[in-house]
Design a protein that fits this description.
five-stranded mixed β-sheet; alpha/beta; Beta Polymerase, domain 2; about 160 residues
């Protein structure tokens, strides 16, 4: 139902769609992202459940931003996917959904995707001078940080004795 309303009011915005177990998914053009969020907010999708990203290293554009919404009256759910290239940013939706603040910072920290107009676009989990973004699929499995690995293999037990002794 909401997908038909989006098509009616903003023709050409939806580039792909599918339905799985009652949850509707649409793929939209990145330039239409804030307009779609405002529209569905006005249509009753006022609960943003989650915002995350998926890395597809062999695809262009490389990332999908995935945002989940729910209409609390009809209990209808809507998943919006926005394809984003490496180094590309999206507008922040913190103006509509305050909880997007934390989610957008997490995506920035873990994937390297920034959000224009975000009130505090800083790292959330990693320290500020950490090199890289850990959830990118080409991130080194050893962490890629020489500082963290400089003492790998060093025993911190010293002369500790076993409880059996």
């Amino acid at each position: 139902m909401i997908i038909e309303r989006i098509d009616e009011v903003m023709p050409g915005t939806i580039t792909n769609r599918h339905d799985f177990r009652g949850d509707q998914t649409i793929v939209i053009d990145p330039s239409k992202y804030p307009d779609v969020v405002k529209f569905i907010f006005d249509e009753g999708f006022q609960l943003m459940i989650d915002l995350t990203a998926v890395d597809w290293p062999d695809r262009q554009p490389r990332f999908d931003i995935v945002v989940q919404f729910q209409n609390l009256i009809s209990q209808e759910r809507l998943r919006i996917k926005i394809p984003v290239g490496m180094g590309q940013s999206l507008p922040s939706i913190t103006g509509f959904h305050k909880c997007a603040n934390w989610f957008e910072r997490e995506v920035f920290d873990m994937f390297g995707i920034s959000f224009d107009g975000h009130p505090n676009m800083t790292r959330l989990f990693m320290w500020s001078d950490f090199n890289g973004h850990p959830l990118q699929k080409d991130f080194p499995l050893d962490g890629g940080d020489t500082w963290c690995n400089s003492d790998a293999g060093t025993s911190y037990a010293g002369r500790a004795k076993s409880l059996a002794d």
